Amino acid sequence: MKTLQWYLLRQVLAGLVTTVAVFAFVLLLANVLREVLLLLVNRQAPLQAVLEAVGLLIPFVLVFALPMGLLTATLLVFGRFSADHELTAVRASGTSLLAVVRPILLLSLALCGVAALINMELGPRSRVAYKRLLAQVGMDRLTALVREKTFIKDIPGWIFYVGQVDGEHLSDLLIYQLGAGGKVEGYIRAAEGWLQVDRSNSLINLRLQDAWRVGLVEGRRVHFFAAETELSFTNTLTRAGSERVRLSDMTLDQLWEQLRELERRLAQPIDLAGIAPGQRPQRQRHLDRWRTDVTLPVMVQIHRQFSFSFACLGFTLVGIPLGIRAHRRETSFGFAVALVLVAVYYSFFVLGQSLDTRPEYYPHLILWVPNFLFEGVGATLLWRANRGFSH
């Protein structure tokens, strides 16, 4: 018995390492291509910063890769176990299926603990650090925003064209100022300029020399010339790194603190003395609903972190009997089934988070539906498989 248990456990662990690595690589690649690689290619970020950004993404992608990898590993291992008729031999010996898979179920519970640590602490912290790193790279390498002979639209309300770039020194500048609807309201032509960052005020300062400015004054086109002038723009890159942390990027402790703070503020009594007595019950209901609307997004994120952490158990309970029923040893089949199940599972999380301002739909409870669904169906299938196993 123990030999068989350790054999299956080793097979699942080996498959888990491989599948988690594959899914993590794919998810990392998607994020790198969308964000990090653009910094390296277009913004000339140092390679060290890119590698650090990739490292910070690993805990974030493990949130998804770990349960996906465990599901795929159980499907593959028990699919091969059934297809190679090893299952038939074990059944002939009268061994209980539940006894055989007990170590794997315990492994899934242990991985739920690991997933909880990642979901509630490591993942959010690494995500915040990753975003701040990207903002810091953009701030420190500000001149990398400016590319020669390219129209630059990184700063809202302005379009820049620079003929030549030499560090912070720019030559042959053409700057368009945009108005409502993105229409050009004026432009500036300058022989040269210098780019500087005002960190304390989160501003980008562009000092121009020998600049011609064309604009509209009372509907008339007016020309100006200045031997030297200066433009200032909000440094959106700096602001991106210093903005408040989003709820989805908060740790569990931060979410609880946020919830307590909201509840403390909302607990303060509101004077309804100026409201007509007949309207007070309706106004009170509106206030109660408003209080729920304010705290609901925080509650949704708290429930998401807890619910997400139990994915490994539900996927294992489903993966074992489905692998046995499939009788397939092909890796492609296991990956295909895993992707379908993962899509079904995570669709509930997408739905729940999209309704985090609609308390009438109980979005925080929707987040628990996939766990109850997968664990309930998985436990039923495993129980049936065990009955067939023992007869």
Keywords:
391 residues; alpha+beta; 2 domains; 6-stranded antiparallel beta sheet; 6 strands; 63% helix; 17% strand; elongated
Q: Can you tell me about this structure?
A:
The chain folds into two domains: 2-140 and 297-390, no CATH class; 147-240, no CATH class. Helices cover 63% and strands 17% of the residues. The protein is elongated, with a radius of gyration of 29 Å. It has 391 residues and is α+β, with helices and mostly antiparallel strands. The longest helix is centred in the first third of the chain and has 44 residues, at 97-140. The chain has helices spanning 2-41, 47-83, 86-92, 97-140, 236-242, 252-266, 280-308, 311-326, 331-354, 363-366, 369-390; strands spanning 151-152, 158-166, 169-178, 184-198, 203-217, 220-234. It has a six-stranded antiparallel β-sheet with strand order 1-2-3-4-5-6. The two termini are 18 Å apart. β2 and β3 form a beta hairpin.
Topology summary:
Blueprint: H1 2-41, H2 47-83, H3 86-92, H4 97-140, E1 151-152, E2 158-166, E3 169-178, E4 184-198, E5 203-217, E6 220-234, H5 236-242, H6 252-266, H7 280-308, H8 311-326, H9 331-354, H10 363-366, H11 369-390
Antiparallel strand pairs: 1-2, 2-3, 3-4, 4-5, 5-6
